[in-house]
Design brief:
alpha/beta, D-Maltodextrin-Binding Protein, domain 2, 11 strands, 2 domains, 6-stranded mixed β-sheet, 5-stranded mixed β-sheet
Length: 340
């Protein structure tokens, strides 16, 4: 069975699970707002997993239904805060200046899987980052990262120096800082727009995790990958819920969700899913004619280590300015990732 067929089967099965989960009568049906393409792992795997965990924890009293296209990615937090939907996923880099503490997990140089990073992220959030109160107005129910972000381009990039001057779609946050350090001209467009941005030659490349090879069809418009161990950055995501939606539930259901779903359990599950879909994206690249992965040389890794050191120092200064013990938080992420 080819990777594409396997992925199609996963998508079909997950979609059936999400739809069938609302077939029975539940006391509470949450409305999920999602902005990713229908077949992307967020919709095909993450939301069905969320629904399964919620239903299992509440003995079916709480379920959810997925709606797409309610608002663009940067508007999801306001959408949930206003009560237009109950639950959503946000990418912190889409709202520059609104989130600072979340940049900690985006730093390049961390070693480990998305699952390990997501668990470390949640634990470090509870210990250090929550004090910044950056998700005020919504209920934070999970934090997770994607896998290491790599450069995907239509023409081959085989040396780091070739990135300078390229027009590259880079998200906000640390990804933007790294892109600037590499001399790229940053173009900020939401992830659902990357295919048309590349197809129209409005950008020479994009920086995204390997899952995007399949999830956003980059095998068709960005046939080359320039890959660094640990990536150029890790994206920071949050699952959020409307506060009134949660407080309107009976206390026993609230407690079940807090104990069995929200926080570390959901964060871990989402990170593990991202590891799986990154594997699918890498396999799709290797299987697609005309696609290639170019590994960074040892010389380039040494150059990038200098960039990592400089970007890390800047981000830690930003966290210190927010009243966070940045060095302690940074050390905790690394130690927790090493332990998972």
């Amino acid at each position: 069975m080819t990777t594409f067929t396997k992925f199609a089967s996963i998508v079909a099965g997950a979609t059936m699970a999400l739809t069938s989960s609302v077939a029975f009568a539940a006391d509470y049906t949450l409305t999920i707002s999602s902005w990713a393409p229908p077949t992307h792992g967020i919709n095909a795997r993450m939301w069905p997993t969320f629904v399964e965990m919620v239903e299992e924890a509440t003995d079916g009293q709480v379920t959810a239904e997925l709606k797409m296209g309610l608002a663009p990615p940067p508007a999801q937090m306001d959408l949930i805060q206003d009560g237009a939907a109950d639950v959503s996923i946000i990418f912190h880099g889409y709202q520059p200046g609104r989130f600072v503490a979340t940049k900690l997990i985006e730093l390049p140089g961390y070693e480990g899987s998305a699952e390990a990073a997501s668990v470390a992220y949640w634990r470090t959030y509870e210990a250090h980052l929550a004090a910044a109160n950056e998700h005020r107005g919504v209920k934070l129910i999970a934090l997770h990262t994607h896998g290491p972000a790599q450069l995907h381009s239509s023409t081959p990039v085989t040396e780091m120096s070739e990135i300078a001057g390229l027009k590259v779609r880079i998200p906000g946050g640390v990804g933007g800082d790294v892109g600037s350090a590499l001399g790229a001209t940053g173009i900020q467009v939401p992830a659902p727009k990357v295919y048309e941005t590349l197809a129209s030659n409005a950008a020479d490349g994009v920086v995204m995790p390997m899952e995007s090879r399949r999830g956003f069809k980059l095998t068709e418009v960005a046939q080359n990958v320039y890959e660094l161990p640990g990536g150029l950055y890790r994206g920071s995501f949050a699952f959020i819920m409307n506060e009134d939606t949660f407080t309107d539930m009976p206390a026993d259901l609230q407690q079940k969700l807090e104990d069995e779903v929200f926080g570390e359990p959901l964060s871990r599950a989402l990170g593990a899913i991202w590891d799986e879909i990154d594997t699918v994206g890498r396999a799709a690249t290797l299987e697609t004619e005309g696609n290639a992965i170019h590994a960074a040389s040892d010389a380039d890794l040494a150059k990038f280590a200098e960039i990592t050191t400089a970007v890390t120092a800047t981000v830690l200064d930003e966290l210190n300015a927010e009243g966070i013990d940045a060095q302690a938080a940074y050390n905790m992420v690394k130690s927790e990732m090493a332990a998972n």
